[in-house]
Structures are given as structure tokens and as C-alpha cells.
Amino acid sequence: MRLFPRLLIAIMFSGLLACGGGGGSGGAVGNVPAISRANPDLNFPSDTIQASNIAIIRAYPNLRFSFPLLVLRAPGDNTRLYVVQQGGLILSFDARDESVSTSSVFLDLSDRTRANGEQGLLGFAFHPDYPNTPTVYAYYSANANPDLTIGDSVIASFTADPANASADNSSTSELLRFTQPFRNHNGGHIAFGPDGMLYIASGDGGSGNDPQNNAQNLGNLLGKILRIAPDGSVPADNPFTGPTAPAGAQGEIWAYGLRNPFRFSFDVATERLWLGDVGQNAVEEINLIRRGGNYGWRLYEGTRSNVNPEARPLSDFDAPVFTYLQDDPDPQKSGRSITGGLVYRGSSVPALNARYVYGDFISGNIWALTESGGAATDNVRIGFVQNPSSFGVDLDGEILVTSFDGSLRRITAASDPGGSVDPFPQTLSDTGLFTHLADLTPARGVVEFEPAARFWSDGASKRRWIAIPESSEIQFSADGNWSFPQGSVTVKHFEMLLADGNTKRLETRVFLNQTSGWRGYTYRWRDDESDADLLLNGSTVLLESDDGNGGVRQQTYEFPGRGQCLECHTAASGFVLGLRTSQLNKALLYRNGIRANQLGALNEAAYFDRDIGAPENYPVLTDPENQAAPLALRARAYLETNCAQCHQPGGPTPINMDLRAATALAQTNTVNVDGTGTAVGGATLRIAPGSAQTSLIWTRMNAAEETVRMPPIATHVIDANGLALIGDWINAMENP
After folding, report:
1. In the chain, at which end, N or C, are there fewer CB atoms within 10 A of the end residue's CB?
2. E strands in 328-397
3. Distance between CA 401 and CA 409 in Å, rounded?
4. What are phi and psi of 316, to 5 degrees?
5. DSSP H or E run through 642
6. 596-617 pLDDT, tens per residue?
7. Residue 51 — pLDDT band, cuts 50, 70, 90?
8. Is there a cis peptide before residue 131, judged by omega within 30 degrees of 0?
9. Helix and strand tally (H, E) in the chain?
10. Is there a contact between 578 and 449 (Cβ–Cβ < 8 Å)?
């Protein structure tokens, strides 16, 4: 089944917003429009995954949440479900009605929660005797001290009113608090076990390779599973209590040697504790947690030796049930951030009975694993969910998945068992995007566009197109993200000027809004440039390119794997980066010879959900390469385009900065702000006015080590012009 008579396309990887005036001419010259609406006749399937007997569907489609991290039931409550949002709200709704459109606030902790990157309201649980004992528990990053740059992790209890589905923010009792040395790897999940004790997942404190060796240190609470009584006391049967406990060991510790245990759950049938531990650069792992167990981090990442100077054998540690590789050549087996799940004990999907269902936040893959004797015997991909953040159950015990796109998804039996999806086009020529590959003539309904500020991509030049179903519209926003209908396609084409003076076609990327969410696909051009072939996984090529100064540059060019697309195309940025008001408020010479403002052209052709009026009424993003423009506007536009997709409120990075161009500089959390947690080359301030070489933003852009360099994608080659621009801006900056 197709989304509409074959799909569409346009680009990604570009930029964001700014200030300025004027939008140029409209969308037509005389009576001739620059572009016209047409229904694209493309060959993309509505989705690329479907298990033969399992489907993942939208649950409660009239509800939308802001960065949901948990969905759960309250004991004894057969009417409502509860959704935890990262920003600090716990919402509830009547789950008996699939068409429900409203939710209510159960508990508001936003005033005490520092929500940024991997911090926020990360965990929530009901007392196991709820509602008889009307107490609820939360794990949040503290925001009580306005001078804090890193929020302490706090576990606190609150008194609830079950009859009115609410809880009292002021009725708090702090049970546990521990300091976070960095802003990432906070873990954060909490849940009551079958023994009535509260289990807590804590990350290793952040940074790379656990530099403080927290996970192996029984003297602190980081990199552990903790276990406390409902009143916060330490149970006497915890493994590191009493006279035989190692000196200095913290009594709350239940298990250790973990990196970032983002999600865990208890199997309701066997009572075993299942946990997903997020890997660093190579391996994601699933563990069965036992009392006193040591799971090997930082000495081992999964089963791979990591920081292990004494070469301790893997047999010294508890082995994972299953691991998967971040660079697995099969995209259906890979991912970069495991989201731990639960063992299915429902009734509607017999194929999943007793299987552990889990996913990956980056790749969106959802799998079902069978275990025997502490090891996996089978692992099957069953579907896809955009940025899955947790797994829970509905009123019937069926699996719900929270997605960072704001939705809830339900895993259910397929309505068409044995059904299949249309095959994905294996070559660029099969997509229907272009009528003539040699000169990239776009097909009917495929419209070229060009953002004002362009994303650096290792020196490659790019062209971009978009297509949407003729019966659909783009939901316009003057200064925020546009919302694109299902079936929308964006395309970005990459070429490189080689040292011999020839231009080499490298890749054409397709970003497709399928039924399961936005998904990226890469077509790599053949050496003879006759066509481009669909890549199953990422790859690299060595090039001799023109360095822009008459010299030769030896460089690595990377073709991204499918899971990498969402590292930049984040939910916070609306997934589609270059298509927004300030970026397109500029003129473009279209193929019919008409030069027109892109906003005006799209408006004239009725691409938007309303008439937006004159482009002159909207902001303009400065071109960073425009030497005549003010230095500050150029620099801010560059940072928005290359950095703000991650560095903005709600973004995926743990670094609390807002690099959107429209944000006042004083509100970006950069100028004279300590950044020692990400220090490079002796720089300690994110921006040190008057000194680029002691400013982290500049030193990270200029880092010799690619794993440290920013942005993290498409920077095998440093952007010399961008580096000079940011350096000049910082050097000219005066202390406030």
C-alpha cells in the first residue's frame, strides 16, 4: 500500500533562523508562476518494514505530548494512563477511549526540573500499594539552584490524590540526591520491584570512557542500579551493607559496572530485572541484573575491551544477554542508543509471548528477543518507531511505546498477516525523482529550493528538492518548525570538486516521511555516474579534492548509514532543517528562468495551509558567506545552520546551549559560561569574549581529533571559512 500515487522528496542538513528584514520579490513574474503544484508520481512505499504478523500503530491519535519519556499505569487503576514529559509534567488521560483528545496534569515538577539534553524528569513510579498508599516517586535533575550548570539527580516522593488524579508538588520528601559531574549519562529510570523496593538506574556521570571511573567504584552511586525502601532507607539485604561490605561501599548499590542504564523493567511472570545499557562508540547491550552483579563498564563495552589497563578477562564480569553493534552492516540490526523494553505478557500478539521487546532511540528499530539460560537464542526486528524513549503497557497489558515525535504507539497483531510492503527503489533512477539523471531534471511535482545559510558537508556542494502530495499542505510557522504531511520527501544531492578539476557526484540523500516517521536513505553514485545505488549501511571513500586554495586535499568522505540521519535531523528541529521561513526567505532562479522569492513561490502555488502574505513580513537568515553583512549576523546564522539542530531547548545534546539565531546572545548560555566538562585545548569558557582560542565553541570546531570536533557529522575536513568567521566574531566581541 502506498501513501499516495507514489511518494516524494527534498533535502535536509541546512539551517535555521535569524533576524533581518525583507524577503525580496514574490512568487510569480507577471502571470507566469515560478512553480506550480503537481502530484508527484514517485515510487516510494508508505513504509519499509512490516513483520508478517505484527503491526505498530498509532495509539490515542488525538493526543500529543512534548518529549514523552514514560507511559505507565497506576496499580489498581483500570481507567487512566500516565505520561511523563521530560520538561517536568506528568499527564493523565482516560485510556478507555481511543479517541480521547484531552489530558490533565497529574503532577507538575517543571519548577524544580532542569530539562536539557539527557537531563529532566527522567523517572516516575507509583507506590506498589497505590492507591491505598497514595504516594508517587520521581527522579529528576534538580533546578533549585539557579547557579547550577549541572543538575543534581534527586529521587523524591509526593503525596497523591487518587480520586482526583492529581498529586501535590509541595508535599515532597527527598529520599536521595547525588551530584552529576557532567550533563549526560544520568540514567534516570525508577520502578518498584516485586519485593516492594524502589530500584533506581544511575548513569556513570557522563563524558567519555567514564573518566572518574565511577561505574567500578563502590564508593559512589554512579553507574549503578540502586535499591532503597519506599521511605528512602537502605534495605538490610542489599549486597554491600553490613560488616562484610567493602570499606567505603555505598549501601544503596544493588549492581554496578553500568554506563547509562536508560530503561529497565521487571518481568511480571519471572520477576527478573531486564536492563538496556547504552553503549559508547561500538556496542549496545541487554543485561539481566542480579544482586551484587558487576557488568564490566568501563573495562568492557558490551563484550569489547575498553579502558582495561590490567587486561581483566571478560569472565570476571556478568555477561550480557545480547549485544548489537552500532556499525552493523545490516541497518535492521544496528542502532546507537538502546531503549530497554519489557517482556511481553499480553494476549493479542501470541508471536511475542515471553519475548523481550525493546528498541533503539537513534535507528528506531524495534526488536523481540528470546532468551534461554541468560543468553539470547533469537532476535527479530518487528518494526520501527521514531525515537522510541520507553516501553509500557496499556489497560489490557499490550505494549505501548513512547516516541519523541510526541505520539504513543501500540504493538498489535497485523490486520493482514503475511502482508508485505512494496520494495524500496534500489537505484535513484527507480525513484521517479528525476526525468533525466544526467542533468538532474526534477520530475513533475519535485521542486528545487536553496536555503540562505548552508550546512558544511566536508566541502561538498549541494542541490536540494522537495515534494509533497498534491492533496496535502505544509503547516506554516513564521519562526518555528514547519510541519510536513505524511508522504513528504526531501532530497539533497552532493558533489565534490576534485583536484584534477573535475566534479564528482557522490550521493543523493532521500528523507522520507513514512507512516512510521521520518527515515533517511542514501543513494551512492557509480563511478561512471550512470546511476546511484541504494546503500544498506554507511561507507567511506578517499578523495583528492580541491582545497580551495589551488592545492590538493586528501580527505575521507563518509556516506551515512540510515541510523545516522536522525542524529542531525532531530525532533527538536522538526526533523527537516533547511525548509523553514527564514532560510527560504530569499530569491532563487528557477528552471523556467523566473527568479522569485522562495516563500512567495511556495505560497503562490498553495503549498501552505494558509495564505501567508508577503515575504517581506517575515525574518531573513543572513548568508554567512555574505561579506557585506554584519559580522554578528553572519556568525549567528552559521551556528544556527550547523549547530542549533542539537543545541536548542529539547535538543538531544546534554550541553545546555541555545544556538538558534533568533535567541538573544545573552540567553544562549554561552558567553562567559563555564564548559570545563567539554574542555579542549585548555579552553574552559564556551565563549570567552575577545579570545577565540580560549573559547570552546571555536576550539571544538578546530579540534585535531575528529571524535572531539564539532559539528560531529561531516567534519572530516575542518571548515576553514566557518572557523575564521566564528573566530573573528568572538575576537571582536566585548565583555558584557
Report:
1. C
2. 338-343, 356-360, 365-372, 375-384, 388-393
3. 5
4. -70, -15
5. helix 631-643
6. 999 999 999 999 999 999 999 9
7. low
8. yes
9. 7, 41
10. yes
